[in-house]
Amino acid sequence: MSMLAGVVLPQSPADLVQIRLGRVRGAEWVWVSRGIHVRREFESDLRSELFGWQEALPEDACFTHLTGALARGWPVPPLPADLPVFAAASGRDVRPRRVGLSVTRHPHPVEFEVLDGLRVARPAEILLSAAHDLGLLDVVVLVDVALHRHDCTLLELWAAANRCRRGAPRLRMALRYADGRAESLWESVLRVLHQACDVPVEPQYVIPDDAGSFRADLRVVGTRRLVEYDGADHRSRERHGKDLTRKRAFHRLGWQRYGYTSPVLLYQGLAVLQDADEALAREHDPARIRAWHQLLAESLFTPAGGARRQERWNAASGGQTRQSTARKRPSTSSGTASLRSISAAISTSVR
Questions:
Q1: Which of 93, 101, 109, 333 is the most buried (most CB within 10 A)?
Q2: Would you identify the CATH topology of the domain 185-295?
């Protein structure tokens, strides 16, 4: 078994007993889509749900976009409450039309890999598809994840970004910001904040010491300032003790460590910029933060950005969502299996 943001993912193909096709009655089954049900105990199991959706797709279709990222176990930005399932199919197939399913047709079949029985697009295709309608910040953090996990190379991504596809321009822009050295989603966000504000930073900076070496998330180039993301794991007693030891070592070696939490990055970016300006000994110009605020506003990291994406996806499906459709169904199949519970777990985990 493996874990994705607190959601258990089986390592082998889901047993068919978890999925039921056709008309189903009984409280133990939860509706996924027309003619597809999953056992209630697997309602929050990503792979079980995707096995059900795969039954509704043509044989050469595969999961892509954010669904492909989730299937590969990538950390993702906070997701809307009723995220559709994204798939790619060739133009020769009849595009399935189901509530909650977003299928993009391509002139030729999209290359995919079979992962634990699921057909999942290759990483470069996933990122190119996501770049079509996600914000630049969202795409950058996803590219960072793919590069850090060695799921693809920069050469493969540039080849995808130079194709005549709708997401290509944004992917090209994201590649200029991306850096596979980032070890977490929020470390990527921290770096992009500084980049957007014209603050030069070096990721994963190594500081040698007689007793070994220390590594910081970012170093403000040309200064003795180290910048790091402090996540929820830093609140434990054991981790807090290690952090204090590191901080004393940094101080002894003549370095300043500034740590920031996710709320600070999202809502107090100006304070981060002010700290960076101080480190660079340059005049503080609040106008520099505008570029960062623009990136945030267009991303899934803000409620408004997520709501705009949700409206767009809902409009593409005729204004219907799986939640609204499920409310019209008989009580014999109460509840709806969807990515929303998984999305909630992931959104909570990355804060």
A1: 101
A2: Endonuclease; Chain A (3.40.960)
pLDDT in tens, 129-159: 999 999 999 999 999 999 999 999 999 999 9
8 Å CB contact between 213 and 255: no
Predicted confidence at residue 211, as pLDDT, reads 67
Q: At what angle do helices 168-177 and 123-131 cross, to 10 degrees?
A: 110
Whole-number pLDDT of residue 32: 72
**Per-residue pLDDT for 236 more than 50?**
yes
- Short-list 209, 224, 308, 301, CA closest to 262: 301
Angle between helix 168-177 and 154-161 (nearest 10)? 150
Contact 192, 177 (CB under 8 A): yes
Read off φ and ψ for residue 263, nearest 5 degrees.
-60, -35
Give the whole-angstrom CA distance, residue 301 versus residue 266: 8
Provide DSSP, 197-211: TT--EEEEEEEEETT
Cα dist from 167 to 160, 269, 302, whole Å: 9, 28, 21
Mean pLDDT over each residue of the chain, to the nearest integer: 83
Domain ranges of the chain: 2-129+315-349, 185-295
pLDDT at 319: 55
The CA distance from 152 to 156, in Å, is 6
Lookup result for tokens 């090209």: 172
Q: pLDDT: is 50 or 318 the higher one?
A: 50
Gap between the Cα atoms of 226 and 335, Å rounded: 48
260 DSSP β-pair partners: 229
Q: Which whole number is the average pLDDT over 324-333?
A: 43
Pairing of the two strands 225-229 and 256-260: parallel
Long-range interactions of 109-117: CB distance < 8 A, separation 24+: 109/60, 110/60, 110/61, 110/62, 110/64, 112/62, 115/71, 115/72, 116/10, 116/11, 116/12, 116/13, 116/47, 117/12, 117/13, 117/14, 117/47, 117/51
- What size, in residues, is the chain? 351
Q: Which residues contact 318 (CB under 8 A, 6 or more apart)?
A: none
* pTM of the model as a whole: 0.83
